[in-house]
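Standup notes
- DV: blocked on the single-chain target, sequence here:
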Amino acid sequence: METIIEITAVIFGLAYIYFLIKEKIICWLFGIISSMLSIFLFYKTNLYSEAILYIYYVVIGVYGFWLWNKKTDSKSQLQITELPVSNYVVLIIIGEVLAMVTGYVFSHYTDASSPYLDAHTTIFSFIASYLEAKKHLASWKFWIIINAVTIVLYLTKGLHYYTLLTGVYLVFSFVGYRTWRSKMRLLKL
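- DV (later): unblocked, structure below
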């Protein structure tokens, strides 16, 4: 049963990333369903930070759907933008502090597996997801690193389908970055 849920979550996750790159609002619905299925699996494998992350993905999915559907004026919708370098520095410092605190809590008060690695991928995924909902190009830069690290985490837990999905996400992160960067540059012309 768990394998079927994992495979279904992966299929919906792939649909999510495909439609996200294309900037199609339906991506959020696929992401919400994939995330809901994933919550159960990560809880069962003692990856509590990942389970919390996927709860957040459901919430950010609803927020992203609302934000992308909202008109910023009578005709236009949310546009892709880039963050200033100072924002990157602030986000990385905040993310690192929160990841260390989360890792400490899970390592001392639960039976969490890989608490610090799990906490880092989780906290930085919170950040990347928020940036993604706001259509900041920076989200893809964060995802490239997060996905590479997450592959290691999932391999250590024997989550082979999620490892495969995250490998695909890693490739799509590069594609998404290039696609969004090209669209952003075209809008500036």
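- Follow-up: DSSP finds seven helices and no strands in the chain.
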